[in-house]
Design brief:
Strand content of chain A: 5-15%
Largest sheet of chain A: 7 strands, mixed
Structural class of chain A: alpha/beta
Largest interface: A-B, 59 and 44 residues
Number of strands of chain B: 9
Radius of gyration of chain A: 23 Å
Order of helices and strands of chain B: EEEEEEEEE
Number of helices of chain B: 0
Number of helices of chain A: 8
Shape of chain A: flat
Oligomer: heterodimer
Largest sheet of chain B: 4 strands, antiparallel
Strand content of chain B: 35-45%
Strand order of the largest sheet of chain B: 4-3-8-9
Distance between the termini of chain B: 36 Å
Helix content of chain A: 25-40%
Shape of chain B: elongated
Distance between the termini of chain A: 36 Å
């Protein structure tokens, strides 16, 4: 079992936006892939990367993210998935047993869907290959639906199991809480989940505070939105009322953090509440951007300082326009590359000046950046990120 | 690499800890080319899952502190498309786990001390309510070959 059941091949940076020390680094590790299944693993990583790139706020933050694929070949394909499990379930297909490098197995704690790996081995392996990692996902080459969380998020290749990985990354990499209002389930008969204890959770996306003036996400609540936005009329059960607001409204919705009442979530629904939900709520998005911004340097120093937000739509457009001109090559690309190099040296000082001289910053935004962005947007619309090519991690970017 | 400041050296070390029923072990020290995050304030109370990691000098003075929420998992999240919402919690703790902390390179610090809540709550599924003040649950050498206490001194988790 374990390291005798396979080989660590090495890491490849499949999304390369700069030096690892200056970017938020996601490492995707495979388990249960034989050497002849390398293409399948690469396909799984490409699929994950595409999915992530389409989800806010990762879309706007994409240029501050590196993605590394850690190739590990196991002696056998799949994972352990026994015929019987204490929860009384049977495997979706035939029972399987496989000698894999990270010992992937279903039916942990007597729960079929609980798919785990040797997390300590995963982390020490990733430490050696990509020391500046910020998030680790393990994709297990098995089609039974399952996954698990912790420092290492694990998911299988079953359809939609990637949502498990993204939800768990919300916990492990971004410090988000679960927003669902039950523990074992709304229909589980649980009786100890009526009222949340009177202790404020430390996570940014759940609260026991119902006062608009002191609410931790008050800056995102429109003055026309009721606070609380919904209240549960029967604390002995989950609230079944429909959303009285729009899907993206930020307010104060009762029922969160494993309790029916006295705990609130920012939005009616969110990826931290429901599997398959497409959106992270705006509060979660803000928390994710804050974590990414804490480790990843802004590429547009002055614009980030002037707008006060490196993920502002205008800043993102400017960055992507620059990357496109560079990617096109030719005289324009060379000139832009030279300008970008100079800017990289001088930009931080200019940004600091703009940030500490608000009148200069405001004038720069109004007279230079806003007209430039408007002209660009008329010409190109909002641009998607520039595609990048894979290279072996550790190679110069 | 981002430049460091006098308070935040440009380089840091990622410490990796593994835990199971026998206790907590320091299993890896990995240098990284990035400053450690700013230090945290001392928490007034911890949940049963939280760990506080402190760098300590030979005189046992704390030079750096990080609060690690949910470091020791007391339950598991279960994903099942047949469930409403597709997800629930189960109060059975995982048999083993791992957590990491990034600390600054500090020549004055000899050890890393882990603090946790004294006892996990004894009510299934209620383990994460904030409770008692922190107590030491492990003490480890920061550098290999030092004279600090032997590794693997972590208590039960």
């Amino acid at each position: 079992m374990g390291t005798s059941d396979g080989t660590v091949v090495g890491a490849t940076k499949v999304v390369d936006h700069g030096a690892d020390a200056d970017r938020w680094n996601l490492v995707v590790v495979g388990d249960g892939y034989r050497s002849d299944q390398q293409a399948d693993f690469e396909s799984a990583v490409t699929s994950l990367t595409s999915t992530l790139q389409g989800i806010a706020p990762f879309d706007a933050a994409w240029e501050r993210i590196n993605v590394h694929r850690l190739d590990v070949h196991s002696d056998e394909t799949g994972a352990d998935n026994p015929a019987t499990c204490a929860d009384g379930s049977s495997p979706a297909g035939a029972a399987t047993s496989a000698r894999t490098y990270f010992d992937a197995s279903f039916c942990n704690n007597g729960i079929r869907r609980l798919l785990v790996v040797d997390a300590a081995l995963v982390v020490t392996t990733v430490n050696a290959e990509v020391p500046e990692w910020d998030g680790i996902l393990v994709v297990v080459n098995h089609t039974e639906y399952g996954g698990s969380g912790g420092t290492v998020a694990v998911y299988s290749t079953a359809p939609s199991a990637v949502d498990i990985a993204i939800h768990e990354m919300g916990h492990s990499a971004f410090g988000l809480a679960d927003e669902y209002e039950y523990y074992a389930g709304c229909n589980s008969g649980e009786t100890d989940r009526n009222n949340h204890p009177a202790t404020e959770p430390s996570e940014p996306n759940v609260t026991i505070v119902s006062d608009r003036a002191t609410l931790k996400w008050r800056h995102l609540v429109d003055s026309a939105t009721d606070v609380p936005t919904t209240e549960n009329g029967d604390c002995t059960r989950c609230d079944t009322q429909a959303n009285p607001a729009s899907a993206t409204t930020i307010g104060l919705f009762e029922g969160a953090h494993y309790y029916h009442c006295d705990a609130y979530r920012p939005a009616f629904d969110c990826r931290m509440r429901t599997m398959g939900q497409a959106l992270f709520c705006a509060v979660c998005q803000e928390a994710i951007k804050k974590k990414i911004g804490a480790v990843a340097k802004p590429a547009c120093f002055v614009a980030s300082a002037v707008y006060g937000d490196p993920f502002h739509r205008d800043v993102v457009l400017l960055r992507r326009w620059r990357d496109r001109v560079i990617a096109r090559g030719g005289a324009g690309g060379t000139a832009m590359r030279l300008a970008a190099g100079t800017y990289a040296r001088l930009g931080p000082r200019a940004a600091q000046y703009a940030a500490t001289h608000p009148r200069v910053g405001r004038a720069l935004r109004r007279r230079a950046l806003v007209p430039l962005v408007a002209a660009l947007r008329r010409r190109t619309g909002d641009l998607p990120p520039v595609a990048v090519t894979a290279q072996r991690s550790g190679e110069k970017s | 690499m981002g430049p460091g400041t006098p308070d935040r050296p440009a380089r840091a070390t990622r410490l990796t800890f593994a835990y199971d029923a026998s206790g907590i072990r320091l299993i890896d020290r990995q240098p990284i080319s990035r400053p450690a995050p700013p230090a945290d304030e001392a928490p007034a109370q911890l949940t049963a899952s939280d760990i506080v990691a402190e760098l300590r000098t030979a005189a046992d003075a704390a030079t750096y502190r990080r609060v690690l929420p949910q470091a020791i998992r007391r339950d598991v999240e279960v994903f099942d498309p047949a469930l409403p919402g597709g997800v629930r919690r189960d109060p059975s703790p995982p048999a083993a786990g791992v957590f990491t902390v990034i600390v600054p390179e500090d020549p004055a610090a000899d050890e890393v001390v882990l603090l946790g809540r004294e006892e996990p709550a004894d009510v299934p599924g209620m383990a994460d309510e904030a409770g008692a003040r922190p107590v030491e649950v492990g003490r480890f050498r920061l550098r290999e070959g030092g004279q600090a206490p032997p590794e693997g001194t972590g208590g039960n988790v």
